[in-house]
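JOB MANIFEST
job_type = single_chain_structure
chain_count = 1
residues = 219
[input]
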Amino acid sequence: MPKTIFIEKDGGSHVLAVSTFFTEKTSVTAHCDGFLDVNRLEGYLCDEIAENGEYVLTFHQDLYDQAQAIKEQEENRTAAEEFQKKMIEEKILDMATDEEAMNMQFMYPEWRGDGVNYAKDKRLRYNGKFYKVLQAHTSQEDWTPDTASGLFVCISDPADEWPEYVQPNGANPYMTGNKVVYKGKKYVCKMDNTVWNPEEYPNAWEEYVEEESAETTEE
């Protein structure tokens, strides 16, 4: 017994949607002999029977296969475009200077401790701060950027003239002229390749003392 259904079709005989109810879109009455596979609508054609003017749905395997091939091509093209876009974005992020990267931190990934392979110089975010990878490694939960100083260095905001002192290692020493705040006091580095804090090696640092204003001097 043919089933009466309502369909939406394009300007030709291709079926776009089917329904058991008459709607604004599915407004064409049609009949279907046998099982109607709604997941394979791309293979159905709506042919008019000249004798009575009714429409009948028929399935064509070759039409369905062709539609699937086109769909797969579109999906592959979209995936290729997304991959290319991602590669270009990663290239831009990798080529950015630390100062440029600070201005677009939100584009960098959050640190993960579940076995991610981090390459040297990759940048990432963790607990609201921005870090650079010092040594290539596979991440672990207990090697967080704020504690594993041998693996990460915190990138200071260039707008911050006096960033907090961060314990360096041989890969990221302080250089002459670098400014830091250490235990509430300001220091300027006097020696290249300094990896000691102002307490450990005071000869490498000079405490910065704010100059008194003219008004204070007059008073």
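[summary]
The longest strand covers residues 3-9.
Helices lie at 61-95, 98-102, 214-218.
exit_status = 0
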